[in-house]
Amino acid sequence: MRGAQALFILIGICSAADPARAEPCGPARLDLVTLQRVAPSGELVLSDGRMVRLAGVQATADALRAAFVPGESLAVGMLSEAPDRWSRFPALVFKLKEGDSPQFSQHALLASGRVLARPERDLGSCWALLVQAEAGAGRVPVTAVEAGRFARVEGRVSRIGDGRSAKFITLQDSEGRRTTGVIQKRFLKRMKADGVDVEALKGQTVRLRGVRGLRNPATIALTLGEQIEIVR
Asked: Regarding beta strands 51-54 and 88-95, do their DSSP bridges make them parallel or antiparallel, or are they unpaired?
């Protein structure tokens, strides 16, 4: 069986749209495992009992059941040494088939147009690959305006508001619906470190990614620079 470091090098080659300019992404340590099943809630249940959440994507259980086959071999790179409160390990997942290079599962799902890219910490250079794959698909799943649901919203920023404890980015999508991104001021320094100048967004067309508010589904909480993508 190939070693973890060899897999790490190959992953970068097979993940990018342009293999000649690919860069490695993902953790250096990969566990070689077998998939037992896809849980009803969308986690991958491994043969050793661990539950894996595909990091960097928002996917339905149906999409994952169509993409994964129980019993197949996987290489899994955990992004955390400890599970979350639902006993899930966020991870990058790679399919292993005899004679083929490893296939970056998140990248393949996004390229198919069946899932959305979802930013989170610790993705590193893999985030750029995931956004690239989503853009190359030419279509993305429609997101509903429902409380507590992950959404990808695109529109022109009409207003930057300044409250006592938060900044507000208001935009309008192609169907005339308004969405406001809410940034608590304690996250503004992190946003700037991520390369996002909030005040400079007015008048620009942006994409916001995040979970709609439980009390107000027209709002999305923003804590990471990756949640804001300038389109033009």
From this structure: parallel
